[in-house]
Every structure is written in structure tokens, then in C-alpha cells.
Write a structure and sequence with these properties.
The complex is a heterotrimer of chains A (492), B (129) and C (427). Chain A is an alpha+beta fold and 492 residues long. Chain A has twelve helices and 23 strands. In chain A, α1 packs across α8, α2 packs across α8 and α10 packs across α12. The longest helix of chain A has 19 residues. With 129 residues, chain B is α+β, with helices and mostly antiparallel strands. Chain B contains three helices and ten strands, in the order αβββαββββαβββ. Chain B has a five-stranded mixed β-sheet with strand order 8-5-6-10-9, with no helix packed on it. In chain B, strands 1-2-3 form a three-stranded antiparallel β-sheet. The termini of chain B are far apart. With 427 residues, chain C is of the alpha/beta class. In chain C, strands 1, 2, 5, 6, 7, 8 and 20 form a seven-stranded mixed β-sheet that branches. In chain C, a hairpin with a 4-residue loop joins β6 and β7. In chain C, α1 runs parallel beside α3 and α1 packs parallel to α8. Classes of the chains: A alpha+beta (492), B alpha+beta (129), C alpha/beta (427). Chains in contact: A-B, A-C, B-C. The interface between B and C is medium-sized, with 28 and 31 residues.
């Protein structure tokens, strides 16, 4: 068993773990981030509404109330540095009767208290002028110009890549199997590759955060998976709405929304259903019906024929509904960043600041590094290039002249680059989330085999070792003699 | 064995034309004794062959080495006995030929001694040509 | 960046595009360009290694590669046809400039006097039909699996369930069986198979593969890799009948749930037909925008490749005539509409003057039926009436209408399919 030693181990490569890794990479620290899956952004961070919320929903005085607005503010600075895909398109909360109208007035007041900039109530006429496809019985809306939509996995990649560039070590397929405690203090984590000794451990394990806490004997909270289903539509129907459209929220949820994505698709969802199984990211007929019916309340004419995929994600709901950001009371040195449900994605960079503060208070010296570089190099996205740029890049690198994903115009050059980047893609879905190859209307029908071949070539592994997404998600078997033998007695 | 046991009846869907007639053929002592449901001559002929000696064209792939593609599609020159199809496919899974190959080449002769050659159904050039 | 000029540019080097290129040359086009995104010409036929192609055109049963090979050889032998393989068209503009890219030439801009769209079709996916369940590895469209098995040398699973009983689904059920896989079942939502009877018999019955009609996959199981599916019966409205569910183990689900004409490049330039999902065309396969033609599965999904080639012949010929200024401007246009019993009809309009002598209509029936009467009429004026012993949605109805029978008027032509005595719906 190796006994690697580090200052901080972060458990969990979602948006929270990655943002913390990037925040800590400013300092003279050794940091290792452990991810159980094949890639970062494989839990809640990959399947959520991908909204950078303005911050009017959360109660003033809560972590959510504080950190949503702060997070939104930070993203306005970070998105260019980290080369994230963000569209600051603003959001609307739509009211349909007097009671809902009263609620959006409350949200306005709450938002002002939380410090959300430039909130405004729109009349029904103003609203329908902006959004002509909405239900005609709307009475008004709350307009929040500071909201935006983000590429959710892209944001995680942006944070983690920057963290890696600044010295953080990422270990994927490295699940934490235990936490070593000595004298009431954490001293390391047990992994399949051995014990990693650490002075501090950050629990950013998302849906599994309570299990991680329990490994350290901390039973102070539980995480309840709450499932939300989504339907994603083709780009041909993007123009249905111009901004993120929420219904007036209920007590438990922001409701089923209709929103463009940052890449020019459209989605509807999520519903909210408490489930027992932390692996249950299935879509269901009932869930899809709820989502469709909910979305129809806002936009009656839904282009269902243009649906390209459905997915669901699990929110990591905690008992009291607020984020859990504190040092464990029973295991010193274990810092929880848990219960991160909406608006957790937005709050993530602010959560990272809070965690740094907690570490400092707990006795970790945070000394800034002179060589910290907050900026990621710009990604070379063929789809977004001018004709001139395209001509130039193909002249330099012929692989940019071979379009692998036709629906999203992704070239072989981009796929090769993403495989060899820091936190490079190792699976077909990993390539998809980084380049959009396979996210279009044919859902990888055309490019899937080609992406598989490129991964095989670039990573030097056989095609049969290429995986779709999860650890055991192998796609193809060899068609070798013997392997494909039939037992004839099974035939009539 | 008595006569009862040697008598069998088989239901068949005719594939000669889109009408897709469903008929029945009764066999006793390896002879067709009765045939109902097939509404045309071609259909009756088809049913007779299907019951006595059904045959199928086999299409599959074999490995090709040093070719621009890893697999060569092949087709049996004439239909093969239906009951031998799986066995033929299994036999061909073990075959490798060398590029280049021209469409129409008999790349594997006399499969399973059935007197039928397997024919390349496309050209495949050798790498580097 | 180079800039080049062609009489006719054909986008897509499958059966429609190859036929269009050859026919454009025959009709006098001096230089023809074929742009193919794959590494070689031939389109999807290259992975369709089974036989049964070409009975109409060549009067023999050919495999897909053999069928396309006949066209490819002619195209490659013709010095007047330029072929760019491994090349993707990024954009087509309505002034007939085309931007394409490949690794060898880089970004290439060309202008053509006439353009033929021949991009074929793509497969509907799981997402489009919203199958509930998890999202594990092992779910493939039948065509993607066909390519892996027949061209790349890998199999997608050893225990297979096929959803959809169109011809590709049936062919793949047999193909996977021959590769040593166990095909658990073919599951079909409709009460009938849309595939050819020949394929039901030779691909399923031959190997004892069960076909579950009026059933669907109601849930996909498996976290990383598919472990099975829940299958359930559906009622007449295609809703799941509770209590009918059963489980099938599998490590691979193949989807053969429909094909959609691939019109991303043509959308925005030409009008599309909401029912076929392809451009609306006249008898010359001329689209709604001057100088743009379309042929094959990009117009409407065909059952036989022979008809795809035929449509390519037509589009190529008239694109060439257009490029040479020999295609007269239409003096009158009459719409052709799908009436009762007919789902789609192509061409959707007929233009005057005509130089083809006859108009061949391609139609698909709404439902399977026996003893039906096909009527092509302009108001009260019956142009063609024909009794059909059987009509099946999976098989194209093809009828020639002599042009001199078509009245040169503004009245639309409608096509209907009605049961005659003793006939009607058939399952």
C-alpha cells in the first residue's frame, strides 16, 4: 500500500468539489481530488437545470440566500477566465392569477433583500411581447436579468482543468472506501490504490455525502435523493422561448420550467420525486407526463416531436433544506460541503470561498501562490469559428477538417484535443460532454462508432475497452472466431 | 412407427408476393398429400420447396487482412440448405482472406462440401494502394 | 481556401446521389461534383450486406455493396464527375454556394448552377420515442449496430432485444443471430410489422425469434450496461396495458423505430412536407427553391433502393437541364394531396410544361388493408383508378399517371385509398 500524503483531499468531482479544488489551487497546498466514477461531473452536476439563478428564491439569512447571489456574481467574473459556456439571458417567473401575482411580488422583495440586481415586475402585455409563445392567461412576471444558463459539465471541466493547471491532482475511478481517524481527527482516506494521508478532508460527495460522513463516524445528517426528470429538444425549436421561464414556485420546488440551453437547445423539467435508491436516475412514463403537463402550463404548444433525449438527475436534499457547510463535530479536519441542492450549481464558487474560510479557521495556513493562473486557455470550438478561422485551423491541423459529429459540427481535431487535455475525456460520453459530439438529433447514431475509434486510438486501448460512461459501460465485443460461436442446439 | 406419426402438417407464410398468403401443407411419408391456402401457382411452388428442401442465400462477413477495411462482405453463389445456414456462418467466422479482393471473386470454395462457393460482394483494396 | 464552379453539385454519395451524378452527366452536365461525408461512396448500402437489392433495376438480387458498386464504378470512370469523400458540407446558401471541409483540401467553397440534395435519412432514437428507464451502454440504433457488425468488426451484444419490426430491425435480428448472438425477441408497437413478409419469414421465423406485435419496451434496466428490458402490451391507442408487463434479459437493445429524412442543410432554403419530413418536390424532383433538387430518402423514406436510384436519375437529369438553361419555367403548378387512406404522396406538385410524358406517384398507405381501390382524381375527374389486392404502409404504392391525362388547370389532384366490397383493414 502506498502512503501518499497531502494537505487536503477533496471527495467528489462535481461542481462543488471542482470549485473547491480550483479555489484551493490559489494557495501553497497539496490537494488531491478523488472521484469514484470514470469522470468528473457524473452525478447531480451532469443532470440539473443548468441555470445560474439570480438569487431571489432563497430565504434571507440562509446559506442559500447568501451564496446564490454571491455565486452568480462570481460566475459573471469567472466565465470568461475559465472559458465556460454561459448565456446571461435572464429569467422570468410567470404568474397566472392573483395569488401567484402576490408571490412574485414577495419574490421581488426577497430578491432585493438578498441583493439581486435589477429585478423588475413585468405586466402581462410586456411579458407576452417578450415571450409570445406563453400561455395567454399569464398575469405578469418577475424579470431577473442577472440569471443565465450554463453548460453544467462544461463548468465542472472549467473549474477542474484550472485546478489541475494550478497543481491539483485529480484521481478518477478512485472511490473512497474508508476514512482513517486518529484521536478524533481525520488523518487519511482509504482507496483501492492505498491510503492517502491528509490533514483535511472535504466531503463534497453530493448524493453520497452522508455515507462519507458516516465513514468518519459522523451521523449528523442524511441526504435524501430527490429525482427530477427532463426532456431535451432539438435546436429547431429553440426559439419557442427567449429566456429561462419558471412557473411561480411552490413551497418545495421552483417548479417545471421551460428554458433554452446555452447550446441552443430547449428543455423542460424537472419534476420532483423523492426516491429511495441513490442510483435511480431512471426516467419514467409518469415523470415525463408530469414534466410535459407542467411545461404546458407555461407554453401550451410543446413541440414533442422534436424531443431528442430524456434524462433525470438526483438532487442531494438535506433534512433542513439548507446547505451543510461546516467542520464535522465528531471528526476534526473533515469539512462538509453537503446537501447542495438548488441553487447549488450557482452557489458553487461562493461555497468554495466559504470552505476556504472554514479551513483557515480550522488551522490550515492559506498562503497565496505567486504562480496561480486563474485563466484557462480558450477552447478551440470549430462550430463557433469564423470561416477565416476555420480555414486557418484546418491548414495547421488537418484533423480539424474531419467533421465527426455532423449534428453539432464537431471535428476530429477537437475530440483529440479534449482527450489529451487536463482531465481529458476517457469515455464516449466524456467526449460528448466536452465537445457536444453525440448530443444532437441523431444522438450519436452516426458519430458514436467514430468517437469510439478515436478514443481507442488516442488512449491506446482496444475498441472493446472503450466505455460509454460508467465504469462497466463497455460498448462493443470483438467479433473474433470462437467468440461469436453459436450453439446450434438453441436453433429450431 | 405407424402412419399417424409420419403425417405432419406445416403452416407457412408465402413470400412470393405482398399478398403474404398463409397456407398449410400436409406431409405423409415425405410426400405432400394436401396443400391449402396458397392462391397462385408460384405460391404453391414456393410452399412445396419450403416443405421439401428449403434454401436460403447466406450473406455474412469474413475477415480480410491488409485491406482498407477489416471485413469483407460475402454472399453464397446459390442458395444453401436452410438447416446449414448457421453452420456455414460459423465456419466463415473463422476465415480470413488477404486483400485485395474483387467483387465476384470466389473467396471461399465449396463451403462445408455443399458445392457452393462464397463470393465477395464488393472490392476491397489493399492498404497503401 | 479554394473556389470552384460546377454545373451540378450533388450532396451525398449514396444510391440517390450516385444515380443523380450519372444521370446529370448523361443529360449534358459538363462537370458534376459529388460530396460524400463518409470515407467512401455508397452510403448506407455499404453496410447492408444482405441481398435483395436491385430486382427492379437490374432484374437480379444483389447485396447492398454490389448494388452500390455498379454505380460507384461508373462514377469513378467518368472524368466529368469529381468525387470528394471524407468531406462534410457545412453550409448551403440559396445562391448555390456550398461550403465544405475535409482534411486534405481544408475549407472549400464552391458554386454550382444546380444543387441536388441526396443526404438520405437518419434513424429515430430512443429519445425521440421517450422510452423510460436508465441510460446504460448497450442501446444502439439498428443501423449503427449494423455498421459496427458488418464494417468495423465488433458486435454490440450477445443477448439482443430488437424494438421495431421494420426491415432494418428484422435484418439485424438475423444478422446478430448469424454472428452468434441470441435474439430474445422483436417487439413491435403496431399490430403489424412494417417490414416485408419475406424478412419476417427469413429473418425471424427461420431462427425461431418471437415477434411481439402490439407490444413496446416500457422500461430499460441496468446502471452502466443494459441488463434487460420490461416489455408490455399496448392497446389500440398505443397505451401500455397494465399487468401485461414481462421482463427480457439482454445486454443490447437495438432500435429500429423509424427513419427521418436528413434535411438540416436544406431546411431554411426549401419548403419541407410535414408528413414526409422531406422537401416538397415536383415531378422533376425540383424543390420549392429555384435550382435546388432532391432525391431519395432525403425526400421521403423509400422501401426499395431501386426507387431511390430512379429518383436520383430524375433529379440529376433535370438539375443538369436546369444548369444548362434547358428546363422551362413552370407555367402552371398543381398540388398533389394525400387524401383518405393515404399518408404521403410524392411528388407533391406537378408543373407544366412537362417533358417526361408520365408522372410516377409514390404513395404510402395509412394502414394495412386488403382489396382497396386507389383513386387519383382532380375534382370529379378521375385520372387513374386501380384495384389493389393489398396495401401495406411498409410498401410504397407506385402508380404512373400519363401526363396527357392530367388536366392543365388549377384544381388540386388528390389520391385516395378506399376499401371495396369484401376488403378493409387487415392486421
Amino acid at each position: 500500500m502506498s502512503a501518499e500524503s497531502t494537505d487536503v483531499v477533496i471527495i467528489g468531482g462535481g461542481i462543488v468539489g471542482s470549485a473547491i479544488a480550483r479555489e484551493l489551487s490559489r494557495y501553497q497546498l497539496a490537494v488531491i481530488l478523488l472521484e469514484a466514477e470514470t469522470d468528473v461531473a457524473m452525478g447531480t452536476s451532469k443532470a440539473n437545470s443548468a441555470i445560474l439563478h439570480a438569487g431571489f428564491d432563497a430565504k434571507p439569512g440562509t446559506w442559500k440566500g447568501k451564496l446564490n447571489v454571491r455565486g452568480n456574481h462570481l460566475y459573471h467574473q469567472l466565465w470568461q477566465d475559465l472559458s465556460l459556456d454561459v448565456d446571461w439571458m435572464g429569467s422570468l417567473v410567470v404568474a397566472k392569477d392573483d395569488a401567484e401575482q402576490a408571490t412574485i411580488e414577495e419574490l421581488l422583495a426577497r430578491g432585493n433583500q438578498n441583493g439581486v440586481p435589477n429585478l423588475e415586475i413585468l405586466s402581462a402585455d410586456q411579458l407576452l411581447e417578450r415571450e409570445p409563445n406563453l400561455a395567454t392567461d399569464v398575469t405578469g412576471a418577475l424579470w431577473a436579468p442577472s440569471a443565465g444558463v450554463v453548460c453544467p459539465f462544461g463548468a465542472v471541466f472549467g473549474f477542474i482543468e484550472n485546478a489541475i493547471r494550478n497543481g491539483v491532482t485529480l484521481l478518477r475511478e478512485c472511490p473512497v472506501q474508508g476514512i482513517v481517524i486518529d484521536n478524533g481527527r481525520v488523518v487519511g482516506v482509504v482507496t483501492p490504490h492505498g491510503v492517502i494521508r491528509a490533514r483535511f478532508i472535504i466531503n463534497a460527495a453530493g448524493i453520497q455525502a452522508d455515507a462519507v460522513a458516516r465513514m468518519a463516524g459522523d451521523n449528523s445528517f442524511t441526504i435524501h435523493p430527490r429525482k427530477g426528470e427532463y426532456i431535451l429538444f432539438d435546436k429547431t425549436v429553440r426559439q419557442l422561448v427567449n429566456t429561462v421561464i419558471f412557473p411561480t414556485p411552490s413551497k418545495v420546488s421552483k417548479g417545471i420550467l421551460v428554458s433554452p440551453t446555452v447550446h441552443g437547445n430547449l428543455f423542460i423539467g424537472p419534476d420532483a420525486e423523492d426516491v429511495a435508491d441513490k442510483d435511480d436516475v431512471s426516467t419514467t412514463a409518469a415523470g415525463m407526463e408530469r414534466v410535459i403537463n407542467g411545461a404546458r402550463r407555461i407554453v401550451p404548444q410543446l413541440p414533442l416531436a422534436a424531443a431528442i433525449t430524456e434524462f433525470s438527475g438526483l438532487r442531494a436534499a438535506s433534512g433542513d433544506g439548507d446547505f451543510i457547510l461546516r467542520e464535522s463535530e465528531t471528526a476534526k479536519g473533515l469539512i462538509h460541503a453537503a446537501g447542495i441542492q438548488s441553487p447549488g450549481f450557482t452557489a458553487a464558487p461562493a461555497i468554495a470561498e466559504v470552505i476556504a474560510d472554514i479551513l483557515r479557521e480550522a488551522g490550515l495556513a492559506l498562503i497565496e501562490k505567486a504562480e496561480f493562473n486563474p485563466v484557462n486557455p480558450p477552447r478551440r470550438v470549430f462550430r463557433e469559428m469564423s470561416w477565416q478561422e476555420r480555414a486557418e485551423i484546418v491548414a495547421r491541423d488537418p484533423l480539424f477538417g474531419r467533421v465527426i459529429c455532423r449534428c453539432e459540427t464537431v471535428t476530429e481535431g477537437e475530440i483529440v484535443a479534449t482527450i489529451h487535455s487536463p482531465c481529458g475525456a476517457v469515455t464516449v460520453d466524456g467526449v460528448k460532454r466536452r465537445t457536444r459530439a453525440g448530443t444532437g438529433r441523431c444522438q450519436g447514431g452516426f458519430c458514436g462508432p467514430r468517437v469510439t475509434a478515436i478514443i481507442s486510438r488516442e488512449l491506446g486501448i482496444p475498441v472493446t475497452a472503450v466505455r460509454k460512461d460508467g465504469i462497466h459501460s463497455f460498448l462493443f465485443s470483438d467479433k473474433l472466431p470462437g467468440v461469436c460461436e453459436v450453439s446450434t442446439d438453441e436453433q429450431p | 412407427m405407424n402412419n399417424q406419426e409420419q403425417k405432419a402438417s406445416k403452416r407457412l407464410t408465402c413470400i412470393v408476393c405482398p399478398m403474404s398468403c398463409v397456407g398449410e401443407v400436409e406431409i405423409a411419408d415425405n410426400q405432400i398429400v394436401r396443400m391449402v391456402g396458397f392462391t397462385c401457382k408460384r405460391g404453391q411452388e414456393y410452399a412445396k420447396n419450403e416443405v421439401t428442401a428449403p434454401k436460403r442465400v447466406l450473406t455474412t462477413t469474413i475477415r480480410i487482412s491488409k485491406g482498407v477495411l477489416p471485413l469483407l462482405p460475402v454472399v453464397s453463389q446459390t442458395p444453401l440448405p436452410k438447416e446449414k445456414i448457421i453452420e456455414c456462418a460459423r465456419c466463415l467466422a473463422n476465415i480470413t482472406v488477404k486483400a485485395p479482393v474483387r467483387e465476384g471473386d470466389a473467396v471461399y470454395k465449396d463451403i462445408l462440401g455443399l458445392g457452393v462457393d462464397m463470393i465477395a460482394s464488393r472490392d476491397i483494396e489493399a492498404v497503401g494502394k | 481556401m479554394s473556389s470552384l464552379k460546377f454545373d451540378v453539385a450533388v450532396i451525398g454519395g449514396g444510391p440517390a446521389g450516385l444515380a443523380a451524378a450519372l444521370s446529370a452527366r448523361t443529360a449534358g452536365a459538363k462537370d458534376v461534383l459529388v460530396i460524400e461525408r463518409d470515407r467512401e461512396l455508397g452510403g448506407i448500402l455499404q453496410q447492408c450486406i444482405h441481398n435483395g437489392f436491385g430486382l427492379h433495376r437490374f432484374h437480379e438480387e444483389l447485396t447492398g455493396p454490389t448494388y452500390s458498386g455498379r454505380f460507384i464504378r461508373q462514377v469513378k470512370a467518368d472524368a466529368g464527375i469529381t468525387v470528394w469523400e471524407d468531406t462534410l458540407v457545412l453550409e448551403v446558401r440559396n445562391d448555390k454556394t456550398i461550403w465544405a471541409i475535409n482534411p486534405q483540401q481544408g475549407l472549400i467553397g464552391i458554386t454550382a448552377k444546380a444543387v441536388v440534395f441526396a443526404m438520405g435519412c437518419r434513424e429515430r432514437t430512443r429519445g425521440a420515442i421517450r422510452i423510460p428507464g436508465l441510460r446504460p451502454a448497450g442501446i444502439f440504433t439498428a443501423g449503427a449496430a449494423q455498421r459496427m457488425v458488418n464494417m468495423e468488426g465488433y458486435i454490440t451484444g450477445k443477448k439482443i432485444v430488437v424494438l421495431g419490426s421494420g426491415d432494418i430491425g428484422l435484418i439485424m435480428a438475423r444478422r446478430m443471430t448469424l454472428e452468434g448472438a441470441k435474439v430474445q425477441a422483436v417487439v413491435e408497437l403496431l399490430p403489424y410489422s412494417n417490414g416485408l413478409t419475406r424478412n419476417v419469414v427469413q429473418c425471424l421465423e427461420d431462427f425461431g425469434i418471437p415477434l411481439h406485435l402490439s407490444h413496446t419496451v416500457s422500461f430499460i434496466h441496468g446502471k452502466d450496461k443494459i441488463t434487460g428490458v420490461t416489455v408490455a402490451a399496448v392497446d389500440q391507442d398505443r397505451n401500455i396495458i397494465p399487468g401485461t408487463e414481462f421482463e427480457l434479459d439482454c445486454d443490447c437493445l437495438l432500435l429500429s423505430v423509424g427513419l427521418i429524412p436528413e434535411n438540416e442543410l436544406s431546411r431554411g432554403i426549401v419548403d419541407l412536407d410535414g408528413l414526409t419530413s422531406g422537401p416538397t418536390v415536383n415531378q422533376y424532383r425540383q424543390t420549392s427553391y429555384d435550382g435546388f433538387f432532391a432525391a431519395g430518402n432525403v425526400v421521403h423514406v423509400h422501401d426499395l433502393v431501386d426507387f431511390v436510384s430512379e429518383e436520383g436519375d430524375i433529379a440529376g437529369k433535370f438539375a443538369a437541364l436546369y444548369a444548362q438553361g434547358k428546363l422551362p419555367t413552370a407555367t402552371n403548378v398543381v398540388a398533389v394531396k394525400a387524401g383518405q387512406g393515404i399518408r404521403t404522396v410524392v411528388p407533391q406538385r406537378i408543373s407544366w410544361p412537362d417533358s417526361s410524358g408520365k408522372v410516377r406517384l409514390f404513395m404510402r398507405a395509412q394502414e394495412p388493408a386488403v382489396r382497396v381501390k386507389l383513386k387519383i382524381a382532380a375534382g370529379e375527374d378521375v385520372l387513374v383508378e386501380r384495384q389493389l389486392p393489398i396495401a401495406r404502409p411498409g410498401e410504397m404504392i407506385v402508380v404512373d399517371v400519363p401526363f396527357d391525362k392530367i388536366p392543365d388547370c388549377t384544381q388540386e389532384i388528390s389520391v385516395t385509398l378506399q376499401a371495396v366490397q369484401g376488403g378493409g383493414l387487415r392486421e
